[in-house]
Amino acid sequence: MQIFRNDSFTYRDLFKRKWLSSFITGFAFLIFSFIVDHFAFIYAYAYSARATSTYVGDVLLDNLPVVNLNFIIVEGMLFAIAAGIIFLLLQPRYILFALKTLALFIVTRAVFMSLTHVGIYPGHIDPGFGPLDSIYLYFNFQTGLFFSGHTCMPIIAALALWDRPILRYTALALAFIFGVSVLLAHVHYSIDVFAAPFMAYGIFNMAKYFFPREYELIKPNLS
Description:
Layout: H1 11-14, H2 17-48, H3 70-90, H4 95-115, H5 131-138, H6 149-160, H7 165-184, H8 190-194, H9 196-210, H10 212-218
Helix pairs in contact: 2-4, 3-7, 4-9, 6-7, 6-9
């Protein structure tokens, strides 16, 4: 039930020959994913300015009030990312799988948000203009609709931490809170949120398939 465990895998192991190449390729893949995401953002932003990019009806958004929940969507998201980084720094065993899975998530979402374009729902809440909002926008968290990264990433984390009940339920609770928040703020369509668990499951299993050595390091003990 501990959040942080004593672990025989240390940073010294991370930089040994056995894992060093995986560490380097993980960082390279992550950088590549941000480049792909950057160009997907430019494309999606330019497309959104076209007259043909209009919003569509949504049975939930049509009936939900608009609520400003930026303190959850922006600050909450950044806090969750910071907490995740702290966890990885304290548990280096997870770093390799996390790097490559995060990169796979970013590339997958960049591809999906480049395929189909609909206008954002009217009356949505925009991020503010504070320093945290600028960081949030810089990493393109607001760009693209399908699928909800706010909902997807915590579920991927929950799957990776399935044998740690406290962390698993915390991650699932975050996914639920973020999912409800982006719907109430009208920054995502309901399909973006409800599809996210399926996308998370698919991305996680692709990561297990493509990065089996890294997954073996963190494979949950469910016995």
